[in-house]
């Protein structure tokens, strides 16, 4: 197979691996290069910078039997692989043209996970040592590899990830007969965490995991319970969530797709735990363990805790402000920075330029007064 056809196949096969959340998906764009169309994916780094990634599989051969996967061993598809030198050359060519400035590299398991992971590591080694690429590389850790190999990957990549896909082995057995959460996945995440803590300066963009939401009838609570433990115990950088969508030809092709709003709610709940100071116990789930699809998790908490409101925004601290629907970290920092210097009118007037902040109006006071917005007017007034 010619190189262009191979690239197209392995880029298309990589689209189910997440490098950004639903909030970034609208920014995915096509970039035309001569007569070919390539997909360039944005990823937001922990420092707020955004990189343009070549997101690609090293190989779409796979020995695993994951029931939801487009490259699982039972799929009747054309199978191809790169060599390490070939893929390194392709990336460097795109990088030198200014089309990408980062690499997201994953793979199916071709024959042996250790051998396949070695080829991925060799690719990154070539980029670092032969081509002197110092930029962003996100490398997937394959299930079944040795802990020594994990450590080698951690020393070369900017970020690594191990996909749990489901919260525990009970659910994993429903979709795969070959993988174990503990031995194949959690053990790797633990070693990544230990290595990162013991060697400052490596893996500067952290490590992540991913869940296929709804693939095995797991609840939101079970997913977030697992994620919460990873954040607290292993210092996981973040988790990604992908609503299950059936793929023709897989054993789950007839399974109904997961509501995309469930993915959105999981991201919102994740943000509350990871950035807003909420605990898992404070989130609201129904009797089956699911988040509301009609209200975001922070609004649900606010409605259940009227005693916390209204929040006086001229006196509240950072985390008190974050409890208010419509106020995120950026807006909270703006309030803390400017509230001493601005008059009541200036604060009120500034709210007009923060559309999301209008959701906060029922929950706040400004110097003792409660603002309101007339239904058909743009101006804000006090009650």
Automatic annotation (TrEMBL):
Domain of life of the native organism: Bacteria
UniProt entry keywords in alphabetical sequence: Iron, Iron-sulfur, Metal-binding, S-adenosyl-L-methionine
UniProt keyword annotation of S-adenosyl-L-methionine present: yes
Domain Radical SAM core: 46-286
Originating species: candidate division WOR-3 bacterium
Gene3D superfamilies recorded: Aldolase class I, Photosystem II 12 kDa extrinsic protein
Protein name: Putative DNA modification/repair radical SAM protein
Keyword Ribonucleoprotein listed: no
Molecular function via GO: catalytic activity; iron-sulfur cluster binding; metal ion binding
């Amino acid at each position: 197979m010619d190189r262009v056809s191979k690239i197209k196949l392995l880029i298309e096969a990589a689209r189910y691996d997440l490098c950004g959340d639903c909030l970034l998906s609208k920014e995915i764009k096509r970039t035309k290069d001569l007569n070919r169309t390539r997909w360039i994916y944005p990823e937001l780094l922990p420092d707020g910078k955004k990189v343009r990634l070549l997101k690609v599989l090293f190989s779409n051969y796979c020995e695993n039997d994951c029931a939801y996967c487009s490259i699982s061993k039972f799929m009747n598809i054309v199978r191809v692989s790169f060599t390490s030198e070939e893929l390194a050359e392709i990336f460097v060519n795109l990088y030198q043209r200014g089309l990408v400035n980062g690499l997201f590299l994953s793979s199916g398991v071709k024959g042996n996970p250790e051998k396949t992971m070695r080829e991925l590591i060799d690719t990154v080694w070539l980029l670092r040592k032969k081509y002197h690429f110092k930029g962003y590389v996100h490398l997937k850790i394959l299930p079944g590899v040795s802990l020594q190999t994990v450590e080698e990957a951690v020393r070369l990549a900017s970020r690594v990830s191990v996909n749990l896909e489901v919260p525990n082995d009970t659910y994993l057995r429903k979709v795969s007969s070959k993988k174990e959460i503990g031995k194949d996945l959690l053990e790797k995440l633990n070693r990544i965490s230990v290595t990162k803590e013991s060697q400052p300066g490596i893996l500067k963009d952290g490590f992540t995991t991913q869940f296929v939401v709804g693939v095995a009838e797991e609840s939101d609570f079970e997913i977030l319970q697992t994620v919460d433990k990873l954040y607290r115990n292993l210092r996981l950088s973040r988790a990604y969530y992908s609503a299950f969508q059936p793929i023709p030809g897989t054993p789950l092709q007839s399974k109904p797709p997961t509501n995309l709003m469930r993915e959105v709610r999981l991201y919102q709940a994740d943000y509350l735990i990871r950035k807003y100071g909420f605990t898992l116990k404070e989130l609201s789930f129904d009797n089956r363990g699911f988040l509301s699809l009609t209200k975001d998790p922070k609004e649900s908490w606010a409605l259940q805790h009227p005693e916390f409101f209204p929040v006086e925004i001229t006196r509240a601290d950072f985390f008190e402000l974050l409890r208010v629907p419509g106020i995120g970290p950026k807006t909270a920092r703006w309030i803390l920075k400017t509230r001493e210097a601005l008059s009541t009118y200036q604060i009120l007037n500034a709210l007009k330029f923060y559309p999301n902040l209008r959701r906060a109006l029922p929950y706040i006071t400004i110097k003792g007064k409660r603002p309101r917005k007339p239904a058909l007017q743009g101006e804000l007034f006090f009650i």
